Amino acid sequence: MEKKIVRDVLFLSQKSDPATRADLPVGIDLLDTLRANRARCVGLAANMIGVKKRIIVIADGLRNEVLLNPVLVHKSGSYETEEGCLSLEGMRPAERWNEITVEFFDMNWKKQRRKYSGFTAQIIQHEMDHLDGILI
Questions:
Q1: Which listed residue (82, 83, 89, 127) is catalytic?
Q2: 55-64 pLDDT, tens per residue?
Q3: How many domains does the chain have?
């Protein structure tokens, strides 16, 4: 179900709790909300729809991917960039990594370990910051 985007900075600044199997429907809500905002959005974190759980969704080319309890296990190639956010106004500076490796659970609750680079890696890092209450 498509959810309203949270813009409350105090709520967004709180750290998220680990996701469980019971939180899988939040992944579906994130996918639906991402699809509804596709023209101006490439990723979402669960707190952006009012749920303080460690779940993100990213648009990776033609497919969307849900990452539950993502953990950055490797990073390389630091660079400076500017990013916007659906929950915030304007653009802000950010430091990101060009190549990352992330461990997470997928929607079948199977542990995954994947490498990402470029813009997809940037999206993941932005959304993972949301999980830690970090706003750009």
A1: 127
A2: 999 998 788 9
A3: 1
